[in-house]
Specification:
CATH superfamily of the largest domain: MFS general substrate transporter like domains
Number of helices: 19
Number of domains: 3
CATH topology of the largest domain: Growth Hormone, Chain: A
CATH architecture of the largest domain: Up-down Bundle
Shape: globular
Helix content: over 70%
Radius of gyration: 23 Å
Strand content: under 5%
Order of helices and strands: HHHHHHHHHHHHHHHHHHH
Low-confidence stretches: 1-9
Length: 511
Amino acid sequence: MTTNEHVQPETTIHDPRQRRAILIAVCIALMAVIASVSGLNVAQPELAVEFGASQTTVLWIINIYTITLAALLLPLGAIGDRWGRKPVLLTGLAVFAVASAAAGLATSTEVMLAARLLSGVGAAMIMPVTLAVITSTFPDAERSKAVGVWSGVAGGGGILGMFLSAVLVDVATWRWLFVLPVVLVLAAAVAAARSVPNSREQAEHRFDLVGSLTSVVAVLGLIFVLHEGPEEGWTAPVTLLSLLVGILAGVGFVAWELRQPAPLLDVRLFRERGLASGSVSLLAVFGVLAGIFVVLFPFFQAVLGWSGLRSTLALMPMALLMMLASGLAPRLAARIGRRSTMASGILLGAVGLALMAVFVSVDGGYLSMLAGMLAMGLGMGLSMTPSTEAITGALPRERQGVASALNDVTREFGTALGVALLGAVLSAGYRSAIDARLTAVPGVPHGTADTAREGVANAIAAAPGAGPQADALVRAAQESFVDGWQQSMWAGFAVMAVLFGYVVLRGPAEK
């Protein structure tokens, strides 16, 4: 009897009510993790004032969570496969709850940083297990629908979490941001303890400790480069050193895994079209999605003059459509095939980017981008679920923790890469445009002009120093931002166009 034959009858759940309870439990847990990725962004000014922290320190408070999460996903996903998914999930929920409570009560930056790091550890125990529980317990006929719900929460949950966080910051204080994940985690723990069965791999070989360590170093190095490169500079010594360490560790990881009888991740599987195309698709889709958020919030706040809460609310149509499309994707895939569904979603996403690039303007406001946002939400939702299934379907049931972790690492890499790429294009486009427009606004003091070149928010803050040219300076900055916006949208369109061609030619086999 093979390992797969031993595991499948033991873990598959045939009771629809228990499956529904399992799906609710893991999605609540996933929502806590996803909401904590983006939620703290809305409280950056409050954190700076509370702790007397610099902008760099505030960014570290935010980023240390995602860096830790990304670095530990693969080894902790594998530990869940070996030790049992239910105990690892419950342990992760407990760690996450304690860390979130500690962050909410933090009295110094040191405590806050430690709490956020510990939250990342808990999240890395939770996130891969949530998907692994679905793929290892749901029968084949129901798995696609459940993965669609999971993908919808993973894709749209960050926006919903950001909205709830903005509400909490507006009506209370930033400390209440950590009440939300604690409540979600407690609810998930109760539901998981009642409904989630335990499942694990029947291991015949030792745990791949060397592979785990090298994967952690590789992910840490490469994610650090993408997070800190825009801040420190792409040629700064710390950036180049991190890139070198990440590449060497990545090469070492691949070389080690190729020699192991029971590797942490069998890299040979990337020869399969499903795993390769699913990973590339998620990398690009989440990269473009994250990059769009970098562009959207300054547009809402600096160009339209909206509050953080109103700006987040403006994203709700896109988030809700994304979640709806993720749930509908399995039905569409059953009709036209997984590859065609992926390609259709990617094409819709590209159309959405083109619509936003063509129609966005200072005077057009929110309506000038709404059609593009809706097309993006629909397209991203349609592409996420089949891409996730392509990854999890490439590994056997007893290795679903690793498959789920690979899916999550791909998302995290894509997010960091998209923010770095589209953010850099936006900044370069803005600087080029503002230089040209400042020459048409005579009488702006040299110092004020230099401040305006740093960004649209800086320009608006410095505008009173321009005297009678204040309004002209603000207008120049807003129009320059729109120019940078258009360039970043076209860059995203190019990425999606290449991805579309790749999926059409090398996407997963139709099912």
